[in-house]
Amino acid sequence: MRTSIKMGGYVAGLAAIFVAALGVGGAVGSGSRPAPGGHNAGHAGDRREADAVAGAGTTPGGLQVAQDGYRLAPVTTSLTPGGTSAFAFRLIGPDGRPVTDYTPTHDKNLHLIAVRRDLSGFQHLHPAMADDGTWTTPLAVEAAGQYRLIADFQPAARAEALTLGVDVPAPGGYEPRPLPAPARTAVVDGYTVTLAGDLVPGTGSTLTLTVSRDGRPVTDLQPHLAAYGHLVALRDGDLAYLHVHPEGAPGDGRTPAGPDITFHVQVPSAGAYRLFLDFQHAGTVRTAEFTAYAGDVATTRPPTSPRSTPSPSAGHDTGHTHG
Asked: Which end of the chain is more exposed for a tag (fewer CB within 10 A), N or C?
């Protein structure tokens, strides 16, 4: 499924996002365009883990290609701009062999995030694994550039999840897209998502995202990956990753199916972030995109970032894909 956004996340426990001058860049649906790692599923244990990791200064998820003997090894070493092709990779374990046994997290053995270095072209994918441990997924690449591929997974041999990331180039001339301006509302496929709540770097806070359609609150959101909403945040500059899950769970007898989706998050540093909220309604998963700042906007807006660094990329990849 593919949703284009018009305007307007670190598995292993680092919760993060934006704040005081937090804002949102509006989003729109298919055919047009307009947020670092551990899971925070909204449960107390998850929040305690996230806070502990953030407080300890652990390296954010998605920034390392290898950790604790595990390594993300691309089989596909370059991408082709202008279409969709297969992307393959393996996760190599401490024994030097591909990992084939996983503990599912949020209904999937692995979540793969793909995004260009300028934070455009976001995709949340769920590859299929062959018997030899090779993961493969269709990957749409509309523009050249360096793409960050972030694998969010939990080997069965580990008690905790891992988030590993690697850059894969799509050769061509690079035209970076400016980071969308912050705003508090995003629009996607006729749905309006409004963001409430401010966060301060280093302090746990609450964000509530409210979904409406045609001016009416959406109160029948559908479960997607065992939740009513999923929030991925990516920090501008290094693409540190956070996959946050909301408070409560479908069918728990206390969590309404909208219109509000509440997340408990903690941002470890000031700076700019892109937020990507996945929600499902009427059988379709849609994504609302936001730009948000942690700290004072005037001091956290980065003067330079990977988007201004020469890289094999041309044009702007505007799509979002679920797989």
From this structure: N
